[in-house]
Design a protein that fits this description.
By secondary structure, the chain is mostly beta strands. 2% of the residues lie in helices and 52% in strands. The chain has a 5-stranded mixed sheet with strand order 5-1-30-29-28, with no helix packed on it.
């Protein structure tokens, strides 16, 4: 049985919507409704650090960098580039802010760049490479592609008919998921939509896409939906392979494959955090392959795996972000 327990917590005065581990795993960037951007240390995940400072047995996440009014509105999305020297944030103030970051000294290293081409809330961010940023949201329902080094928008992909909640990529393929119930695959070279995957499943009907995650090989896509279902697709064939329900039938807000793609982490508006064995789901979708790892006191808004350790972070409307570490872990 897989077991994880909370090891560190950060509390805010308002709901926390987003968090992203630095590629090194030593830092985590956190965005909240309080408009703040924080970068915290993850040193407590080191085996050599055992000190506990809270009554609940958790440490407080040490804040190494903070901007109280980083945005004019709530911070909905945070992402690091692969090199770890740029952190980007998106907000309901309709902007994306890109910060050059010196991770060794935890200070901003360049003048910020601000992109203001979105017409609604920026819901998700993803770095395709060190300088190419993908951003999606509402208002225009577009997938925007920007060069963060030059500070320019490169292109915008149109086709979705409602708010775009999720974006990811693999090689030359970009993938977006929308409230319109579809997932679109885009060729970055031709800028064309190469496939539209409908979210309908039998009598369950259409439901909005809330989150996307590709496995390490880029061939298997997990999409979570507003009705609580999670869908596994063969991305190359555009074929639905299986569907599973790791939580109660409310929005499954966030999913992410583990580095061993057998496992999928998910967080729900019912407050639960779950781990599902994708391998078992594909073999027998009728068997329960999900374990509930823990809970928050309110909606879970984001889950994200640590890049190297058996640990993950969860964000919640209960105004906390929590780091969880394995007592009995998963297979690497």
């Amino acid at each position: 049985k897989v077991k994880f327990s909370p090891s560190a917590v950060l509390e805010d005065v308002q709901p926390i919507r987003s968090a992203a581990f630095h590629p090194s795993g030593e830092l985590i960037a956190i965005g909240s409704n309080s408009k703040a951007l924080r970068v915290c240390s993850c040193h407590m995940l080191s085996d050599s650090v055992q000190t506990l400072v809270r009554d609940d047995g958790c440490q407080d996440l040490p804040v190494l960098f903070k901007r109280n009014r980083h945005h004019r509105g709530s911070v909905y999305a945070v992402a690091w580039n692969p090199m770890g020297n740029v952190v980007a944030t998106g907000s309901n103030d309709k902007s994306v802010i890109v910060v050059g970051f010196d991770a060794d000294n935890c200070i901003s290293s360049t003048t910020d760049r601000e992109f203001t081409f979105h017409q609604g809330t920026v819901r998700d961010l993803h770095f395709h490479d060190n300088s190419t940023l993908l951003s999606v949201g509402g208002g225009d329902n577009l997938l925007h592609v920007s060069d963060v080094e030059k500070g320019v928008e490169l292109s915008a992909y149109s086709g979705h008919t409602a708010t775009v909640h999720a974006v990811t990529s693999h090689r030359d393929s970009l993938v977006s998921g929308s409230e319109d119930g579809t997932i679109r695959l885009w060729d970055r070279r031709s800028k064309a939509c190469t496939r539209v995957i409908g979210a309908a499943l039998g009598t369950q009907g259409k439901s909005g896409i809330s989150s996307l995650s590709l496995n390490n090989f880029g061939n298997l896509l997990c999409a979570s939906r507003d009705d609580g279902l999670c869908m596994l697709y063969d991305i190359e064939m555009g074929k639905l392979l299986a569907a599973f329900s790791p939580h109660t039938p409310v929005t499954c807000r966030s999913v992410q494959f583990y580095r061993n793609p057998r496992y999928i982490l998910s967080g729900s508006y019912d407050g639960t955090i779950a781990l599902t064995c994708a391998e078992q789901v594909l073999l027998n979708p009728e068997v329960n392959c999900t374990e509930i790892l823990g809970t928050h006191r309110d909606k879970v808004t984001r889950v994200t795996w640590h890049p190297t350790k058996q640990a993950f972070a969860t964000c919640s409307a209960d105004r906390t972000v929590c780091l969880w570490t394995a007592r009995e872990g998963v297979d690497d």
